[in-house]
Amino acid sequence: MPTHPSGTALDPARERLAACIGAHTAGREDVPTALPGLAFFRREARTEPCECRVEPAVVLVVQGAKQLLIGGKPYPYDVQRFVVTSLDLPAASQVLEGSSERPCLGLVLKLDLRLLAELIAQSGLPAPREKPADGSAMLGRVTSPLLDAFARLVDLLEEDAATQRVLAPLIAREIHYRLLQSDAAVRLWQIVSVGTPGQRIARALDWLRSHYTRPLRIEQLAAHVQMSPSSLHEHFKQLTAMTPLQYQKWLRLNEARRLMLNERLDAAEAAFRVGYESASQFSREYARLFGAPPRRDVEALKLQGGLPGARGQAARRRAHDSLARA
């Protein structure tokens, strides 16, 4: 029977998942599936940290090992541990174990925060007693019931569309319930329970994503989420490793990059579109985040087919430090 490098035998559910994900990802790295919110990944080499954007999701590795870095804090995960991310944030992803002979294989399932809140209200599960650590992610131990639920969800890819429509929501609901029973539950409770600081910070992030082009007034944002400005700043930094202003800046710069790359706007027009009043300030902050001035960065991306290459990845590994200095 195949084994994890540590010597632990893989159980049948993990073997099924590894075989299915391996077949679907042959020759590719990231593969969306026909099931809503479910995607597979494959990496055939160790990597340096590469920029990514994380959404509320659970990430499960069935072969190999990876690491997520949020605000410089590492969250290593493998076949023994999954990672839950609870907020929409910039991060860096790194492959720790993976080769062409034994690729790193896994899946990502987007979380439905409303479903989590509904399950908390309906299930009568007791609230976790421990206090969550700072950060928006948390590791959890992979259990047989959780792994079996994921395997049954992935098995639906072999079924017809009608069966998928009926059964996928039921299995996804079970997965969400299992996560609320896991040792990562404390982070999920913090984000979805009404009135908690985590839930209010999640609302603040939603507001910033909808209003990032406007000048940021901390007092207005704090009033919107019913927190004092000092409390907003404290809890925002604890959960995101950024200040609200840094998060707004990250949203603006990434949207400007998309506008220049996909809609062919020049730097000045993209800067104005996302809320900058000074083109020179935009160029400075853009270069600090992406490692090159706007025009040079976009030209390099176009040559690479729109995908960040090694130069861009190396520069963007400094993104969090750059934002912190800004």
CA-atom Rg in angstroms: 21 Å
- The separation of the N and C termini measures 52 Å
Number of helices: 14
Taking pLDDT < 50 over at least 5 consecutive residues as the criterion, the unreliable ranges are 1-9, 309-326
Structural class: alpha+beta
Could you state the oligomeric state of the chains shown?
single chain
Helicity range: 40-55%
The dominant shape is globular
Strand content: 15-25%
Q: Please report the total strand number as a whole number.
A: 10
Query: Which strand order do you get reading across the main beta sheet?
Result: 1-2-9-4-7-10
Mean pLDDT, nearest integer? 88
Please trace the helix and strand order, writing H or E for each element: HEEEEEEEEEHEHHHHHHHHHHHH
Largest sheet: 6 strands, antiparallel
List key phrases describing it:
326 residues, alpha+beta, 4-stranded antiparallel β-sheet, 14 helices, 49% helix, disordered N terminus, disordered C terminus
Structural account:
The chain is an alpha+beta fold and 326 residues long. The protein is built from 14 helices and 10 strands. The chain has a 6-stranded antiparallel sheet. Strands 3-8-5-6 form a 4-stranded antiparallel sheet. The N terminus and C terminus are likely disordered.
What's the SSE blueprint?
Blueprint: H1 12-24, E1 30-32, E2 38-43, E3 50-54, E4 57-63, E5 65-70, E6 73-78, E7 81-85, E8 89-97, E9 104-110, H2 113-123, E10 137-141, H3 144-155, H4 161-180, H5 185-192, H6 197-211, H7 218-224, H8 229-240, H9 244-262, H10 267-273, H11 279-290, H12 294-303, H13 310-316, H14 319-325
Antiparallel strand pairs: 1-2, 2-9, 3-8, 4-7, 4-9, 5-6, 5-8, 7-10
